[in-house]
Amino acid sequence: MAQIRVENLRKAFAQFVAVHESNFTIEDGTFFAMLGPSGCGKTTTLRMIAGLELPTGGRILLDGADVTYRRAAERDIAFVFQLFALYPHMNVEQNIGFPLKCQGVRRSEVRARVRETARLLRIEHLLSSKTSKLSGGDRQRVALGRAIIRRPKAFLMDEPLGALDAEFRQLMCGELRDLHNRISATTIYVTHDQLEAMSMADRIAVMNAGKVEQIGTPQEIYDRPASLFVADFIGSPPMNFLRFEGGLRSGDRTIRIRDVSIAVPEIYEQRSIGPLVLGVRPEHIVFSDAAPVRGRVFGAEYLGTTQIVTVETEEGRVKARLPSSAPVRIGEMVGLAFRSDRLALFDAQTGWAIQTASHGSVGRG
Amino acid sequence: MANVMLRHVTKRFGSIEAVRDLSLFIEDGEFVVLLGPSGAGKTTTLRLITGLERPDQGSISINGRDVTRDPPGTRDIAFVFQQYSLYPHLTVYDNLAFPLRSPAHRIPEPIIRKRVEQTAELLHISSKLGNRATRLSGGEMQRVAIGRALVRDPAIYLMDEPLSSLDAKLRAELRLELKRIQVELGATILYVTHDQVEAMTMASRIGVIKDGTLLQLGTPREIYENPGDRYVASRLGTPQINFLPAKLIPEVTMPSGTDTIGIRTEHLRIAAVNGGGIVGRVHRVEHLGDQNHVYLEYRGQMLVTLADPHRPLEAGQDVELQLVHPLYFDAAGRRIAATVH
C-alpha cells in the first residue's frame, strides 16, 4: 500500500484556476476525504492524482516516487466511479474477475482471487448469481469487489454513493469503512456530503474555490473550524453566526454584541474595531430566562430524541438543538445561553477563525 | 378551509391493490403527512382525493359532502408536485396569477393583483414578482410553485414530495417556511413523502403507510415513542432503532410472547465493564461532530448507540450495555404492551 504526497499542485484551465497550490500528505492506510461544494476543485485534484488530468504545476508522489507525468495505467491506482455499473450478462464471479481476465491472469489464479475478494465482502454465497437478481446492496458490493480485486496501491473514489437514497447511503458508508478496516488500502474519497466524509474518513480536507481551507480529523474540523466557510459546511444544522462590530484585545474573556456581554474562551489575538462573527453550534445553546441574548421562537422541528428550535434574534435566526422533552411554544420570547468554552470567533472580512484558548492554530491546507 | 374524510377506500390496478381499505380523517387546519416508501400507495391516495382516480370501494368526502363520483375540476383542491412546472416565458407575477385568470373564475384584475401580492409576501418573494420564472434559484422556483397553489384559497392542499428535488440546505429552509405558512393560513394539507425528517418536523399527524395499508396514524411524538409494530418503529429515527432477538438477552425480563426487543439508539446506554450481564464490543466509532455513533457487536448482532463526541471509546473495547425503555414485539412484529420494566 502507499503514501500519497501532493506538492504545490496547481491546475489552470486557460484563465480559470481550478486548483491553487495544494499541499498535503496522505499516510499509508489512511481514509482521506476531500470535501467541498461542486466546483471547489476536489474532483480535479483527484483526477490529477489518478493521472487522468495533467497538472499545470507541482508534483505528485506515490510512495516517494514522482508520478506527476506518468500515465494513469502506470500508477497502480484504482479509480472507482459511481458504483453500480455491472455487466448484466455476466454472473457475480465473472463480474468480479473481469479486471484480472483483461490483464491476462491465469484462470485458476483469477478464481482464487475472486474467492478471496468475495470472502472480504461477505458475498461468497452469491458468486454464481445473476447480477440482475441482486439487491441494491449486493450490487454495490459486487462493484466494490471488482475495484479491490486488483489490489492496487490506492483507491480513488469520486462520489461513489451519489446516486443512492439517504438511508441506503448511510448503510453503504458503514460497509465501505468496514472494508477499509479489513484491507487498509490508502483511500481518497471525494464528496460534497459532509455526513459521508465525517462518518468514514480518518482525515478530511475541506476545499473551497480551488483551495484547501482546512485538513484535520472529523472532530477537529467540527470543533475548531478554520474559517467561516468550513464552519458553515460542517454540521446539520450548521453553526450559527452572530455578526457584530468590535475590537479584540489579547487576554479578553468576553465580547460585546450591542450591549450584551458574552463569555468566550480567552482570546489570543489583537484586533482593531471591525466586523466580527461569533460562531455557536446549535447543541451549545440552552434556553435560560436570565440570558441576555433574547429572541422569539419562530419554529420547532421535532426529530425524535432532539428538536431544532429556530429563534429570531436581533442578530438573525439562531437554531438551537434541545432535548425533545423541552417545552417550546411558537411566538414566545426566550433567552439564549451559550456554552462559553465552545464558542468560536471569526474575522468577517477574511473569513478566518480568530485564535482563542479553545481554537488554537489549526491545519490550513 | 375544509376537512377531508376517506372511508374504507380501496383502489386496485389489475391484480395489485395500490390502496387497501384506507380510512383517514383530516381535520380542518391539520397538516397530515403520509410517510412511506415508493410504491406504498401515497401518490395513489392523493390522486383518489383529487378525482384523477376513482376508488373501487369506499367513499371520499370534503367538508361532509360526498365527492367520490365528482369530476376532478369541481373538488376545489390545489395540487403541488415534486417538479415545479412553471411557465418559463411568464414572470413570477403572471405565474402566480395564472390559476386565478382561468375563464371559469372571472376574477377582476384588481382582486387578482391583491391576492398575488399577498401570496408573494407570505412566501418572501415580493421583490421577484417582475422576474422571469427561469431567472430564479431552485428554492425560489419551488416557492412560486407552492404560491400558485396558495393564491387559489382552495378547500385543501395536496402535496406530492414538493421538496425532494431541492438540496439539503434549501429543503431545511423551506420545511420551516411551509410549516409557518400552513399555521398562518390555517390551511388543511395532505402531504406525502418518503423522508422521515419532513414528516416529523412538519406534520400535525403522521400516517405511516406500507403496501397500500395505513399502519398507524398519530402525532410525530406518538409514532416515535409508541410505535404499534416493528415496521413503524423502524421508520422513524436516525440511526434506526436497534432490534435484538429476545433469546439473546435472557438477562432481561420481558412480557411473555416477546420475540424481538427494539431499543432506540438513545436508549442503549454504555458503561465501563463492571461485572454486569450484557457486554458488547465496540466495532467502530463514527465522529459526526455533535455526537458519535458507536457501533457495537453483541452476540453476532450489530447495535448502534450515541455517545458524547469527546468520550474516549475505541474499536475492540468491551462495554456494558444497559437497555432503557425497550419496546417488545411478538413474532408477527406487533408491539406487546410493556408490563414489566
Features:
heterodimer, A: 365 residues, alpha+beta, Rossmann fold, OB fold (Dihydrolipoamide Acetyltransferase, E2P), six-stranded mixed beta sheet, five-stranded antiparallel beta sheet, 8 helices, 20 strands, globular, B: 341 residues, 2 domains, 19 strands, 23% helix
Show the helix and strand layout.
The complex is a heterodimer of chains A (365) and B (341).
Chain A: E1 4-13, E2 16-26, E3 31-35, H1 42-50, E4 57-62, E5 65-66, E6 77-80, H2 92-102, H3 107-121, H4 136-148, E7 154-158, H5 166-183, E8 186-191, H6 194-200, E9 203-208, E10 211-216, H7 218-223, H8 228-233, E11 240-248, E12 254-257, E13 260-263, E14 271-280, E15 285-287, E16 293-302, E17 306-313, E18 316-323, E19 333-338, E20 344-347
Parallel strand pairs in A: 3-8, 3-9, 6-7, 7-8
Antiparallel strand pairs in A: 1-2, 1-4, 4-5, 9-10, 11-14, 12-13, 14-20, 15-19, 16-17, 16-19, 17-18
Helix pairs in contact in A: 2-3, 2-4, 3-4
Chain B: E1 4-13, E2 16-26, E3 31-35, H1 42-50, E4 57-62, E5 65-66, E6 77-80, H2 92-97, H3 109-122, H4 138-150, E7 156-160, H5 168-185, E8 189-193, H6 196-202, E9 205-210, E10 213-218, H7 220-225, H8 230-235, E11 242-245, E12 260-263, E13 268-271, E14 279-287, E15 292-298, E16 301-307, E17 318-323, E18 327-329, E19 335-336
Parallel strand pairs in B: 3-8, 3-9, 6-7, 7-8
Antiparallel strand pairs in B: 1-2, 1-4, 4-5, 9-10, 11-12, 12-18, 13-17, 14-15, 14-17, 15-16, 18-19
